[in-house]
Amino acid sequence: MTKEITSAAIDKFTNDLSNHAGINIASHAAQENGIFKASQNLQSKIDLTPTFSVEIDTGKPADQKQSGRCWMFSALNTMRHPLQKEYKIKDFELSQNYTNFWDKFEKSNFFFENVIASAKKPLGDRKVSFLFATPQQDGGQWDMLCGLVEKYGIVPKSVYPETANSNNSGALNDTLNTLLRKDGLELRDLVNAGKSEDEIEKRKNELLNDVFRILAISLGVPPKKFDFEYKDDDGNYHREAGITPREFFDKFVGMNLEDHVSIINSPTDDKPYHKVFSVEYLGNVVGGRQVRHLNVKISEMKDLIIKQLKAGEVVWFGSNVGKDSERQLGLLDTNIYKRDELFDVDFSMSKGDKLDSSESMMDHAMVITGVDLVDDKPTKWKIENSWGEKPGFKGYFVMSDSWFDDFVYQAVINKKFLPDDLRTAFDEGAKDPIQLLPWDPMGALAFK
């Protein structure tokens, strides 16, 4: 039976205010400055000075502007860093717009195929509603980027630069999603009218032609071949003529993407450690690389990341950057805001409870480029962001180890750093991963 809030209860709550010491000071501070400013802890700034015992120089950070392509920028950053060093090209960037074009095109086909497969279910079915809620978007995960590169290769940013619609993606996303929803309803009707597979496929390709045209007008036509010209840091001229995007990736990047695997930390009852998981409806390239996550303990994740950093390799990772963070200062710390002291309220939750209750989930991908070890234990981490040079320390952030514990959910590790038991667990589990529901927090896309 439901119970209303009574006047007596409100009187009791009002009288209780006097039992909390310093409430007047807290009220003045919060009302004048806002909750976060009023509760900001200066000690975080002191503790998170940008000094690290293990550090990889990665140069100038990239800028995703007003788009949700952090996962894409961060993944391409891990690929460009070795290229910059080997070929002596300072601040070189790979084309984020090139992968953006193919991602949106492949996501459109991914949506159509899932709509066709689920056409017999009612529109009110939760999975169908999930599909139509966001047919495509900017967000993604590591394996999705790998699927694009494996199929389409990559090009330098100078060959396929950003446009107004890649830098600020709102209008393009709105345009595409309007079209995809309309087309998705048509494909459902064709299935339910008993049309043949050939007829449905023919119509789907006609609809994809419209998508391709919108992308070509908005982002440009991706090159099939191009000339790569550059001067290295020593002033020497180089030219590679008539190279394809796939040839460029193989020659200049040369990363074996199959050697890099996603590990997650999800301390929830439904996800046993050392098991491999995938997520229904999570992907972009139909027939391409499947999203697969190996769940590990947070201590195992840290050990693997440190091992990779010490070997000179940066680490792509996914986290909840909207929590306990100060963007302009570039600080990520669970102690940066003392809201519990400001309100005299206990806000503490376990990481598992945060995931299960939707309090937290992955929303941003960045790159770990350093760590400060004291007595062989991490105290803070150096982070390369993709928000340009203005925030933080010329675009770099500092993450406390406690923030890592609470808000880091995913990292990409080279298989060679996995101990034998984890490598076996991934290889065996990846053959038939445990399927999670589409709305599981481990299926959240990095989009900030």
UniProtKB/TrEMBL annotation:
Compartment(s): Cytoplasm
Main location: cytoplasm
Cited InterPro entries: Papain-like_cys_pep_sf, Pept_cys_AS, Pept_his_AS, Peptidase_C1B
PROSITE patterns the UniProt entry points to: THIOL_PROTEASE_CYS, THIOL_PROTEASE_HIS
Keywords per UniProt: Aminopeptidase, Hydrolase, Protease, Thiol protease
Domain of life: Bacteria
Pfam families linked: Peptidase_C1_2
MF term (GO), any: aminopeptidase activity
Family of this protein: Belongs to the peptidase C1 family.
Protein name per UniProt: Aminopeptidase
Organism of this sequence: Lactobacillus melliventris
